[in-house]
Every structure is written in structure tokens, then in C-alpha cells.
Please model this.
Amino acid sequence: MNHFIRKKGELFCEEVAVAEIAGKIGTPFYLYSKRTLLQHFHAFDSGFTGIEHLTCFAVKACSNIAILHLFAQAGGGADIVSGGELFRALKAGVDPGKIIYSGVGKTEKELRYGLESKILLFNVESADELERLHKLAQTMGTKAPVSFRVNPDVDPLTHAYISTGLAKNKFGIPMQEAMGLYERAAVMEGIEVKGISCHIGSQLTQISPFVESMTKIKAFVQELGRQNISIRYVDLGGGVGITYDVETPPHPHDYAEAIRRELEGLDCTLILEPGRVIVGNAGILVTEVQYTKTNRGGDVEKKFVIVDAAMNDLTRPSLYGAYHTIQPVMDTKAVTETVDVVGPICETGDFIAKDRELAQAEQGDLLAVMSAGAYGFSMSSNYNSRPRVAEVLVDGNRYAVIRKRETLDQLIQGETIVDFQE
Model:
């Protein structure tokens, strides 16, 4: 459920007309509903009421500090994968004691930053990382709180690029190797073993892979206990999907109930890392039609709607072949036609939709690309030297720009012309 609604044919975000915002700040821009963000956060978190748990929002899904601040105020933590995301989380007011640090390639500088910030857990993903963290903690005169990310070899039944829990994926440590690492870490002076972590992928639409993973993790935790290695935190990751088109993902409470059943018998705090399920349907990308054209001469006549948003603004369609519903901001009752919605980037792969039935559009029309709140702005780039777009947050009948549109001067910030001639 979200708060993007129509009133007399016009698209509103909560109580603000989308066209009004476009008229004030220009296009393209990302638009988020505060009411939807908090509603989704509480819908997910409340499923685990009554058990010790911590909901750590996956910063990579949507990293604007204004949005991270909302979740921090709601009692949430942060799941981070870089030093930059740690910086963002701290600036947004996230309690460092509620921050967990995942990722396969943490640098020494990033590990030091995490230790200095006194974060809750490092989700270690290799033997080399363990050794580096151990040596660093010793030189700093501290202990690194560690959770190993194990790879349960569970098929998440999702897109190959966002599958992370199979043996062939780069993430985590195979379960058959993890016991040896736990035993080694348990006697390291600079390491404090605290937890176990598992994340099998993103945009999962079935509960069964989560249950299979939790079953394996539970058995492994019990085996660790028999080796006198106590586990205080079980991090099950995130991955619950949303509806982009015809998907029917589980309700967060159904997911929570299944996990609660599998947790029985473990005296641990559960950590969750939701991202897409909270922000995906809480944000849209608003773009303006620049031109329409029809290419003839081939076997099939091809119609294009060319907009001012592009693959650098929303990468998912080009990268994953992902589907996003596209709606006219103003319902013109125009007849529909089959078109490709494309941007101005000099790549054939620059598209938002292909062969899509869309109300006939004209130059100047506004289009809303729905379900763009997750992995939308956070994956955007400056390709073709395009300034990154603005981000806007609506709260009832008010709105605020939470990230200004980049300027041309900002495009070359940090660059220097040099002349090596004598």
C-alpha cells in the first residue's frame, strides 16, 4: 500500500499534486512519501513484536540522509556496505550500536572507521578479512565485534544478479568452512565473536527460501554452541520482494511468522536488513516527455516516447530488464499505443520500458515511473555528464527538496586540467 493516489484523474503524493512539484523544481526528480516510508517500516518491524530484534535498513536501497533519519527516529538501525554508507548513517543520526557492516571488500581504512565508530557488528566474509580485522583491532587496542556471513547455498528464486546465497556467488563463507573460522576467531585476542549472518538475495517472492536458510542457520548455531561458541545475534538479512508488475510477494507479517517459528529454541537477538520492501513502493521518478517519434522501414513500425530521465537516473530496466509501471501524471483519457519509453543517453540500452501500452503522450506531458524508491537514485550516475536529479520528500500537504539537483559546476568538481609541457 502506498500514498500515490489519483484525485479527479491527477496523480498526488499524499496531499500534494505531483504536477505542482514538477512546476516548481523541474524534471526529472525522485519523489518519496513520508507516510508510506514509515507505514512500511512499521509494517515490517511490527511483525517481530514480542521477540528481541533489530530492524537495520539496507542503506544501499535508498541512501538519502533525510530518509535514513526517518528510520533512525523510528528506532531502526542501518545495514551498510561501505565507509560512505557508514558516514551517511552516522550523519543521519543512526545509533552506531545499531549499525552492521556487510560487504566482501572492506578496506583497512573502512574497517578502522567502523571500529572507531563502535558499530554493533562486522559481518566478516572471508578468512583474509578476519585476519586484517584482527590485526587492526590489536593495533587499536580494542576488540572487533564479529559475525560471520555464511553462505547456505539456498536458491532464492530471483534474478541472477541479485542472488547472493548460492555457492557460486561471491558473498559469504561456505557453511562447511565456517566452523573452522569460528574456532579460529574464538581464540583471537582482537576478535569478539558475537553473531552469524546470512543473506540469500533480493526481490524474493516466496517464503520457502527464507525458511530453508533459517533452518540451516539454526542447526549451525546449535553446533557452535556444542563447541562452546556462543552466538548472541542471528542476522537473516533482507530480501522480501515488492509488487512491480504481477508479482505476489508475501506480506511482511507472514514472512515474520515463518521466521519466528524457525527461531524457537534459540536465545538470540534477530537482526533483519529490509530495504526494497520498505522504500520500493514509497518512491517514484517523475519525468517529462521531450519528443515522440516513429521509426519506419523495418518489419515493424516502432514508436518511441523520449523523456528527460535516462538509464543514468534509473538503471534497473537496462541492468536487470526490470519492469516499472509508467503512468501519466495527468489522466488525459487518450487512446493507448505500444511504445518504447527511452531517454537521451547515447546507448541503445537506454530505456525505461519496451513495448509498453501507454496512453498517447505529447511533448510536455509528465510521466510517473512507479515503484522507483529502491535502487533508483542510489544507483544513479553522471554518465553522459548528466547532473544527478533532485530528490523530494512529501509529508501530508508539505514537501521539501532533500537533495538538490546537481549543477554543471558540480560535474567537474575535483577535476583539474594539467599541462606537462616544459
Confidence is low (pLDDT under 50) at residues 158-166. The two ends are 65 Å apart (CA to CA). The CA atoms of residues 408 and 414 lie 13 Å apart. DSSP finds twelve helices and 21 strands in the chain.
